[in-house]
């Protein structure tokens, strides 16, 4: 369940710091959030798909680590990002 190229480019354009920025924490977190949302919808329709559930848990853990890093290094960008993405603040 990969993201379409158009959707990925749209997310990158929205959260990139510079023109060719595809690897910053903000972009990675935004892309992971979109994949998590897509997998969540898939798992609601297919509750017995355990391999996708495992992949979802890995994505959530990876996003959590990136959010923790961003919170510790650039707190103002962290706050803006969680508000833009609608992620719960814990």
Short summary of the structure?
With 90 residues, this protein is mainly alpha-helical. It is built from 4 helices and no strands.
Main traits of this protein?
90 residues, Helix Hairpins, 4 helices, 74% helix
Task: Give the secondary structure arrangement, pairings included.
Elements: H1 5-15, H2 25-45, H3 50-73, H4 75-85
Helix pairs in contact: 1-2, 2-3, 3-4
GO molecular function: rRNA binding; structural constituent of ribosome
GO cellular component, one term: cytosolic small ribosomal subunit
InterPro entries: Ribosomal_uS15 (IPR000589), Ribosomal_uS15_bac-type (IPR005290), uS15_NS1_RNA-bd_sf (IPR009068)
Structure overview:
- It is built from four helices and no strands.
- Helix 1 packs across helix 2 and helix 3 packs antiparallel against helix 4.
The name of the CATH superfamily reads: S15/NS1, RNA-binding
Low-confidence stretches: none
The DSSP helix count reads 4
- Based on Cα principal axes, name the global outline: globular
């Amino acid at each position: 369940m990969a993201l379409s190229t158009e959707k990925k480019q749209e997310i990158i354009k929205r959260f990139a710091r510079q023109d060719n920025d595809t690897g910053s924490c903000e972009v990675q977190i935004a892309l992971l959030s979109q994949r998590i949302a897509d997998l969540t919808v898939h798992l609601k329709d297919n509750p017995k798909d355990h391999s996708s559930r495992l992949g979802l848990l890995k994505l959530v853990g990876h996003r959590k680590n990136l959010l923790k890093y961003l919170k510790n290094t650039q707190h103002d960008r962290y706050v803006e990002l969680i508000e833009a993405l609608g992620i719960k603040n814990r």
